[in-house]
Amino acid sequence: MKSNHQKYTNTPDGLGLFLQKIWRSRALVLLLAKRDLKVKYAQTILGVGWSIIQPLTGMLVFSLFFGYVLNWQVKDLPFPLYVLSGLLSWNFFSYVVNAGAGSLQESSAIIKKIHFPKSILPLSKVLVALVELGISFFILLLLIVYYQYAISWKIVFVPLALLFNTVCGLALVFWVAAFAYRKRDLFHLLPFVVYFGIWFTPVFFGTDLLPQNLRPLLLLNPMASVVELWRWMIFGTSAFNYYWIVSFVITLLFCLTGMYFYSRKEKDFSDYL
Amino acid sequence: MSREEVIKVTHLSKKFTLSSTSVGNGHSMGHELLALNDVSFSIGKGESVGIFGLNGSGKSTLLKVLSGITKPSTGSVEIQGRVASILDIGAGFHPELSGHENIFLNAQLMGFTRKEIESKYDEIVKFSGVERFINEPVKNYSNGMYLRLAFSIMAHLDFDIYLFDEVMHVGDAGFMLKTQQKIQALSESDRTVVIVSHNLNDLGNCDKLIELNSGSIKNITSQKDVLSKYIIESVKQNDIDIMTKEGAITSFQSNRPSAKVALQQVRLYQENNEAAFRSSLPLLAEISYEKLSDKDTLDVILVVSDSTGTIIFVSTPLIKGMMSDASDAGMYRAICELPADFFSTNIYSAGITFVKNAASLKNADLQATGAGELGTVFDQYGVVASYSKALYFSVEVSMNNFADLGRLKLPVGYLLPGFNWTYKQDTDKNNPGQ
Fold it and tell me: What are phi and psi of B157, to 5 degrees?
């Protein structure tokens, strides 16, 4: 059994200890995710059906308006396939951000009564989002079969795309959590990011639709890289963009600094939640 | 930290910034509150420690820091062992999950592995008594079931240190007894128990007492008389007058005003003692009342409660078969002699109740009227006026030959009666009592 000696002082954990504590609590992350999944569809008739309906509705609405009514075209792909492949990545991101940031307040009753590493709360939401992503991916597979497309061998890079996608979400969550626990304005900003962010990410429009002088702006949005990375992996249509690596490294640094600031503030959370 | 110390608190301070932020006005008027101020103490393995103090003295903050929920502002807390912080029973429960799932969730949040929980699972469920509903979501549980399950989890997992924050007084009588027994058993084992409480009985059983006063330690002692001093102080803080020496009270509020009787005055005094009441002398209560009608006879009942309202004893002349036979209107007095060596250091409240026609309940009369006419008997006997908490009093405990009660380190009870004791020596050890 591990040594149970603990010392509480005002000194913050620091990034190393912070990550160490998360690793030690990995079973708990899984448990909380299971709890969320179970609770999510408790007392519903459709149950998991809702996880199918959500991405399906998004795909249908976007395809109808932009693909059919406005008749937007994308290179090499049927419009619904393009939209759904973008949506699964975006929905994953938006769930991690919304649920992750909300998780600290959602569990404030526990935080105030039980001592445990609070960072596992947003992390457990990543697992929940992962399940949703899996369901979306399954729908995408059916759609691919319907359109008689093939899946590229590059799909083996899925873990990398997932990591990039997760890092994007967590970077926002930890930065916001680190600075919003006293003044909650930042929490109110997140829904805007998720709501309007999709308009700045090539989910339902092709990048070639943008005017030439605006395209570099997409480089500032790591989610644009993530969405394109997914499409590259699944369909193998476009060429690999080395900028994605740059974007990933920058986002990862952003995420780690967020975690660093978060780890310095975590000790004060139970006083302010 | 020495080997036997399991909790070591060194120069601990905790500051809160109170932000009186109103919605829409983001500017906080930050003023700081020092909830704990340079607190140092240590607790050894197996000790049971009671923490008490007036509201706002920092008890709960201290417990939160000990449990790791809140971090110190300065200073440090060192803990050796697994801590069960029972600040709020069932805090980790999720209403949508079943009892079964919540057992695992709750215990894993507190750092136990699935294996450890599985080995105790059956015991937990059995003790809680909710076997039949263990697969139901806990939101459908009654309050009692919820509490029983939550306590059962705490009681069966192996912690080294238990922190309790006044949560033991919940549930029905049976459950309360069960929790008390469990806590008692824990205190007597080699587990370390820290209790924050206002309850004399909980605190009275502790090995060590820590009294906090506005964030600082006022007392660390194993002498139990700090408890009674504290209770007296806390009652005084709430603007309640306590009679500590000869005096009289003349204004009363009745919760049952009556046209038959009016309480005029209650006087407490001790013969030959004008200083503070001493427990070594009898205490006399003189109850003066005006009988307002010429009908009925009246008798007095004295009800003495402790500071929490628990009735400690009831006395009336009727117990010894004595009853007043006067029915004329006018002024009367009832005098009660409360014996010497009887009261403990506590705050007592005295209430006075008047009943009419007690004589109608005498055995002989009941037989004379016959069972069929019991109705008329009930019409006759009854409460006519009741003055609860007519006055508060406290007595300084002084015992023959002992200058200071504290040195005896007696547990604190509601009363400290002398009774009649004898010592005898038995010469034949195989045949005691001969």
Answer: -85, 150
Using a CB-CB cut-off of 8 Å, the residues of chain B touching A42 are 96, 137
Between A10, A42, A110, which is nearest B74 by CB? Answer: A10
What is the DSSP secondary-structure string of B133-201? GTTSBGGGS-HHHHHHHHHHHHHHS--SEEEEES-SS-S-HHHHHHHHHHHHHHHHTT-EEEEE-S-HH
Residue A1 has pLDDT above 60, yes or no: no
B76–A8 C-beta distance less than 8 A: yes
What is the rounded average pLDDT for all residues in chain B?
83
What number is the ipTM of this complex? 0.74
Chain B neighbors of A112, CB-CB under 8 A: 69, 91
Q: Is B316 helix (H, G, I), strand (E, B) or coil?
A: coil
Return the residue of B nearest to A13 by Cα: B71
Q: Which residue has the tokens 């929905």?
A: A91
pLDDT tens, residue by residue, B279-330: 889 999 999 999 998 888 899 999 999 877 889 999 999 999 888 888 889 9
Residue B29 has pLDDT above 60, yes or no: no
Q: What distances in angstroms separate CA A12 from CA A9, A182, A261, A270, one per listed residue?
A: 8, 17, 10, 14
Residue B169 to residue B166: CA distance in whole angstroms:
7
Q: A109: distance to nearest CA of chain B, Å?
A: 7
